[in-house]
């Protein structure tokens, strides 16, 4: 039996090269080895206010990005979370075994609510991790490939899985996070102390997967670096290290090869070459994204087929859960 891999991205904000290098491009590599399930987590996106028109468009865009980045619907189940009602059903059941204390300790929840008064914190944002646990447990996923920032949520899913199993008998697999070593945390171009983020308000923070060549050149040239000159992989020179990491991941070259290539040249040469490399690597992906966005009927067909396959697996788990709980079927 192949192990099951499951992950998802929210259709909100701007999908950037951090999401691509840290998450999506990795998923494509596992496709032959594992049973793969990738969803567009629209029900997570509505935990913060969304404009209905852009939510719909973004949902298609994330699906198009999955396909353009190499996820193959013949090898992977690709679907939209809200198309499979079992996610909401299991999320409610999992919420009933979760505790206020553990949910209050989630750092993403704390980060997203620092500026809000307690009275006005949306409940959906609070129980967001129980929905994510349901996504994972429904498919008996063994591995959950995510960036560093989601590790705590996967650990909570482990705890909830074990708690359910202890109370009601072995039902769920206990999942593990799968986090890549290099590229798990691409940093912001305008501030290499913080990660590149979808919800960044400044456009200079990220390179969107859909950025045009002129924009990419401008953002890379302006990327924050120190006042040094030698191009070397040095984790202490954070801005430079981030640019070199992006270069390494897109080019597939080793650190020594890259340092040799730029020997005797300054940051200017690196930035110029890096911008052209990103433009070259994103071009075929952008072409495919545009193609799918202009042919949404193709996306509809792929997503409907994915939902059908996902639903079958999800229903089997949900039925067992309901039986164990004592719900009359
Ligand atoms: P963001 O954190 O930018 O809002 P999400 O939380 O929706 O984006 O992340 C989607 C996926 O991309 C997750 O697996 C996340 O861990 C990964 N990811 C997000 N930002 C980065 C980054 N800067 N570097 C590497 N991976 C990232
Ligand atoms: N919370 C994840 C994020 O913001 C997205 C997500 C939802 C997810 N459900 C998931 C990731 C299940 C992995 C598995 O990135």
List the helices and strands and how they pair.
Blueprint: E1 4-9, H1 17-29, E2 35-40, H2 42-45, H3 52-68, E3 76-80, H4 86-97, H5 100-104, H6 107-113, H7 123-138, E4 143-145, H8 151-168, E5 176-178, H9 213-222, H10 238-251, H11 255-261, H12 267-294, H13 296-325
Parallel strand pairs: 1-2, 2-3, 4-5
This protein binds adenosine-5'-diphosphate and tryptophan.
Residues 9-10, 13, 18-19, 22-23, 146-147, 149-150, 184-186, 195-199 line the site of adenosine-5'-diphosphate.
List keywords for this structure.
329 residues; mainly alpha; Rossmann fold; Tyrosyl-Transfer RNA Synthetase; 2 domains; three-stranded parallel sheet; 7% strand; globular; binds adenosine-5'-diphosphate; binds tryptophan; cytoplasm; aa-tRNA-synth_Ic; EC 6.1.1.2; Rossmann-like_a/b/a_fold; ATP-binding
Overall structural domain count: 2
CATH structural architecture of the largest domain: 3-Layer(aba) Sandwich
Strand content: 5-15%
Overall morphology:
globular
The main β sheet shows up as: 3 strands, parallel
The small-molecule ligands in this entry are: adenosine-5'-diphosphate, tryptophan
- Stretches where pLDDT is under 50 for at least 5 consecutive residues are none
How many strands? 5
Identify the CATH class of the largest domain: Alpha Beta
Share of helical residues: 55-70%
What's the CATH H-level homologous superfamily of the largest domain? HUPs
Rg measurement, Å: 21 Å
Distance between the termini: 29 Å
Helical region count? 13
Function: Catalyzes the attachment of tryptophan to tRNA(Trp).
GO molecular function, one term: ATP binding
Subunit structure: Homodimer.
Catalytic activity: tRNA(Trp) + L-tryptophan + ATP = L-tryptophyl-tRNA(Trp) + AMP + diphosphate + H(+)
